[in-house]
Design goal:
Layout lengths: L1 E13 L6 E3 L19 E2 L11 H8 L4 E2 L6 E2 L18 E2 L7 E2 H9 L14 H26 L1 E30 L8 E13 L6 E5 L3 E4 L4 E34 L15 E16 L2 E7 L2 H5 L6 E7 L4 E6 L2
Parallel strand pairs: 3-7
Antiparallel strand pairs: 1-2, 1-3, 1-12, 4-5, 4-6, 8-12, 8-13, 8-15, 9-12, 10-12, 11-12, 13-14, 15-16
The structure holds zinc ion (2 copies).
C-alpha cells in the first residue's frame, strides 16, 4: 500500500480543566490558561468533509515534526524551539515530543468512547487438552504405520514363471507442417519476428507504486496526528496496472497429423510416411504390450523396449517380478 497525503486540516483539543474547545495550534487554554497535557489528544471537528488548510506557513509547521512538551512546566513548544516559551527551560533536557501517526478521532467518537464503560471479556482458554494431544499422536503413528505397510507391499516382489499368451505393438510418427500459428501473450513476451494482429488493454498486476497506465485504487481518507494541532489527511492506495495483451501469428512447425501402425506379432514396423512439400517427420513413439499366463493368473507388461519385445514370442517362458498388487515390475527370459 502506498500512503498518500491529500492535505492538512485544523484540529482542536478540549481543555480537561475547563472543557473549553481550543484550536489545535494554540498551546495553552484560551479560557483558563492551562497548558495542553501530553495525554490530551487532538480531535477532528468536521466529520462530514475535510476543511483543507490553505495557509502554507501552517502546513510547513505541521511538516517540521511534533511539538515538544516542556519538562518543567508542561507547555507545548514547536519542534524547532530550544527553550520553553513559557518558563525558558531547556527543552533538550527531557522535553517530551507528542505522539504522531495515530488516527485522529472526531469529537463525537471521543465523546462516545468516554461514555461507554470499558467491557473486558475473559479470553477463552487456548490450547488442547492432554487427551486430545495423546489421541493426535496415536492417530499420526497409525497413519505412519499404514503408509509403511503399503510401501512394503508395493516394494515386495515375487518371482513368477509365466508363458507369453499374446502380444501387441503400436508405433506412430507425428507429421509436422511449417505453417502460420496463432497465439496470445503480453506485448513484451511475444517472440521476435512474430506478427502482432491486435491488442487489448488488460489488467496485468497490482503494485504499491504509482505507474504509468495504472488505475489508482484508494481506501477511505482519514486523519493522522502530526503532533502539532494540524491533522494530515491520508489515504492508502494501490495501483492496478493495465497492459497490452495481444493476438499474434508466426511461422512455425506444428503437429498436423500422426500416422500409426499396429500389430499383434513380434515384428513391429514403422508406418510409411508420405510427406507433402511443407511437411516433416516429427516425434516417433513406440509402445509394446506382452501378456502372460502363470500360476493361474494373467499378467500384462508394457514397455518401449523393442529388443525385449521381439524376444517375447507367444509360448516362450519368462521370469516376472510381480509386486503384491499384481503389477509386473520387470521381465527376463527363462533359461
Ligand atoms: Zn481551560
Ligand atoms: Zn516550560
Amino acid at each position: 500500500m502506498a500512503r498518500k497525503t491529500i492535505g492538512f486540516v485544523p484540529l482542536i483539543w478540549i481543555c480537561p480543566s475547563c472543557d473549553t474547545q481550543n484550536p489545535g495550534p494554540i498551546k495553552t487554554c484560551t479560557s483558563c490558561g492551562a497548558p495542553q497535557p501530553t495525554d490530551i489528544q487532538f480531535l477532528q471537528v468536521d466529520e462530514e468533509r475535510f476543511n483543507f488548510i490553505k495557509d502554507e506557513a501552517l502546513i510547513r509547521m505541521a511538516q517540521t515534526g511534533p511539538d515538544i512538551h516542556c519538562p518543567y512546566c508542561g507547555t507545548r513548544n514547536p519542534a524547532t524551539a530550544k527553550l520553553c516559551s513559557n518558563c525558558g527551560g531547556d527543552l533538550s533536557l527531557g522535553g517530551k515530543a507528542r505522539q504522531v501517526g495515530q488516527r485522529v478521532k472526531t469529537v463525537s467518537e471521543a465523546e462516545k468512547s468516554e461514555a461507554a464503560p470499558r467491557v473486558t471479556t475473559p479470553e477463552p482458554k487456548k490450547g488442547l487438552s492432554r487427551g486430545a494431544i495423546l489421541f493426535g499422536i496415536i492417530a499420526i503413528l497409525a497413519c505412519l504405520a499404514g503408509a509403511i505397510a503399503l510401501m512394503m507391499m508395493l516394494f515386495r516382489t515375487d518371482e513368477i514363471t509365466a508363458t507369453v499368451t499374446d502380444v501387441a505393438w503400436e508405433r506412430s510418427v507425428n507429421i509436422e507442417a511449417y505453417t502460420t500459428v496463432t497465439d496470445q501473450d503480453w506485448w513484451d513476451e511475444i517472440p521476435g519476428g512474430a506478427d502482432i494482429r491486435s491488442c487489448k488493454s488488460t489488467y496485468r498486476y497490482t503494485t504499491d507504486q504509482p505507474q504509468a497506465n495504472a488505475t489508482e485504487v484508494c481506501g477511505e481518507a482519514y486523519v493522522e496526528d502530526t503532533g502539532t494541532g494540524v491533522g494530515e489527511v491520508v489515504q492508502e492506495c494501490v495501483y492496478d496496472v493495465y497492459d497490452d495483451y495481444c493476438d499474434y501469428t508466426y511461422l512455425g512447425w506444428v503437429i498436423v497429423d500422426a500416422i500409426t501402425e499396429t500389430g499383434s506379432d513380434v515384428y513391429p514396423s514403422w508406418p510409411y510416411v508420405a510427406l507433402e512439400g511443407d511437411q516433416r517427420e516429427g516425434e516417433r513413439t513406440e509402445k509394446y504390450q506382452i501378456r502372460f499366463s502363470g500360476d493361474g493368473e494373467r499378467y500384462i507388461y508394457t514397455t518401449s523396449d523393442a529388443q525385449l519385445f521381439q524376444m517375447a514370442s507367444p509360448g516362450s517362458r519368462w521370469i516376472l517380478e510381480v509386486n503384491s498388487l499384481g503389477g509386473v515390475q520387470s521381465i527376463e527370459p527363462y533359461n
